[in-house]
Design a protein that fits this description.
mainly alpha
Amino acid sequence: MKHAPASVWRNPIHFLAFGLGSGAVPKAPGTFGTLAAIPIWLLFADLSLEYYLLLLILSFALGCWLCGKTSDDLGVHDHGGIVWDEFVGLWITYLAMPEGWGWVLIGFLLFRVFDILKPWPIGWVDKRVSGGLGIMLDDVLAGIMALGCVQALNYLILI
């Protein structure tokens, strides 16, 4: 894993792409980036479904540009420190999240499992879609799969 470039601390685009600097850690930047997404999620967790979805769409669109630009600037496709995609993926996982910190932990773990293992179609997309969209899309799919699991577990528990 390449170390975070100094531009992370000087360039606001890189700083955002590196998850407010959370992706600059030398080990497990994806996990640290995902953890850093939780306090930010707490700021908008109580939004109505419509506003939450709008925020996800805007965060995804911004992420495609941020991640693509940072990747191009660094000359490295999907540098491990680029974690804005983990932010958005986790926020997707937390869509209509059941109440309680246990669910936050379950969602976090499920998202990381899907993001790391990259089962089909995540791995397929990761290998075949390039640019900012490619960086974002595999984490969006991981978030959707984790969201489905969280909601299914919640449904089964409530039966």
